[in-house]
What does this fold into?
Amino acid sequence: MSLSLKTQGAATLRLLGKPFGGIGGAICGAGLGLFIFVALFAPLLAPYAYDAQDLARIGLPPSAENWFGTDEFGRDVLSRVIYGARISLSVGLTAVALSASAGILIGALCGYFGGRFDRITMAAIDLTWCFPEILLALVLVAILGPGLNSTVIAIAVAYLAQFTRLTRTQVRALKGETFVEVSRCLGAGHAHILLRHLLPNALAPVIVVAMLTTGDAILLEATLGFFGMGAQPPTPSWGAMMSSGSAQLFNAPWVVIIPGLFVALSVIFINVYGDAILAALDVKNRIRRA
Amino acid sequence: MADYVLRRILALIPVFFFVTVVVFMIVHLVPGDPIDNLVRIGVTPEQKALIAARYGLDQPLYLQYWRWLTLVLQGDFGSAIVLRRPVMDLIRENIGYSLTLGGLALCFSALVGITTGAIAAAWRNTLVDKSIMGVVLLGSTVPAFWLGLLLILLFAVTLGWLPVSGAKHWTALILPVVTVGLGGMALVARVTRVSMMDIGRQDFVTLLHAKGVPAWAVQVRHVLRHALIPVVTLLSLRIGLIVGGSVTVEYVFARPGIGSLLIRALGQRDYPVVQGCLLMLAMAVMIGTLLGDLVQAAMDPRQREESR
It folds into this structure.
């Protein structure tokens, strides 16, 4: 199993088509910037507080006062979506940052030192491939107890194998290059070679994959939230909003539709913008070489 | 080839054992005592110990694991704590629904994905290509459960064409299959498109054109055939996506299945059911990956040599 998985990251990456770039990339970059801006300045931008209930205005459709309508407690959906951007984006980013850092560390050590340490570690990490990401995350959150911290950790573990594999492949490919040998002949230690020579050259594709994975992580967070495993009420993550809204799907569909739309939009923005960066940096060739 | 098949199957055995350890351990790390869910308030510690002994929860972990593993290998996952029935019966009742949904979703992903990908590649950089790839982009970015809810809203509630949920009639399968399959379809279409464009640039394709082979025959008979190898790899690696997708979609459509069984058991802290379902789902992923490897090796003899 490990053999086919080893080539998988590179093969999949090489083959994922990049039909969008140019103007599309620019628009999506701007959209992403806007989302981050909204998330940062949520308290200034939201017309109402995210937990302000108005029991006289329950389940109202979108109107001039509540652009996206109100939910089952009479809370303004627009305000909750704006605050939700904070939770969803920061959970996605933190989880991927955590996962990528751990993956880069483990992958670099495995790729550089090889041997039995590498085999055992990678076998353990490959085990996570046997469980679909969503299952792994669901079970981990169940173990750690529902909440945002466990969501971050669960998502980070779900993507750990991918980052470890990718970094390991990169480092292994670079290890044999002449400049590494030269540096070793000059008396450089392992730490110097790893930090100064191997990682800077190995990281470009890892960073792009990290960016693309952030989209997946936001999706995963939404799914966990939908199962009631993520942000706990009244905290408004997009997934949690859809979860509570789904009970009223037939009466107030906008409570479900609108957060989902924002999840989809942010994932599209991240993917297209990531693809555009990938094309611009031409990291595809580096990955191919690995 | 027989040699290769055997080696791949043997290679799965240690993986299987590690997976059983993980499945066993995961569930024992969960906080919350299943006995507390089982007994009424006011029960004496002696009575609790008696119940713990009945389910073997008082023994050291490695003994519990060994006992569990020997039973699992005989197809016995123990008794569900909350539902008070053999876990194997529950799995047997539900697995058919999951296999139907997963299998059909896989077929949907493959057929629709390859077709649309090939069409997009044949009319590359035209409006056809751009609109197909646009839909594909949407398909891979929408949360599956959200798509499921929207489809329910549109086709079941507003139009009234299809049932909202359940599994009583075959029409109840249409929406779940589309929901699960769309993510996979998007990936397959993308990979088919790029792969066909890559192959199309090779010399033998130019030669075929020069020999006067009709353009459609070059595309369908030669280019598509070569282009399918990475698609098969992708499909087998994405088995997990389909299995995982089924879990959420079963829940949304209130369909019976291993996924909804697992979600319910997680909420109730019903260890044996969680273990049984997780092991089933992990095995589905392992077998799917294996089948994918084998199909790939059958299509591309170089793969068989590489793994020696």
Q: What stands out?
A: The first helix of chain A runs from residue 2 to 15. Residues 1-20 of chain A have pLDDT under 50 and may be disordered.
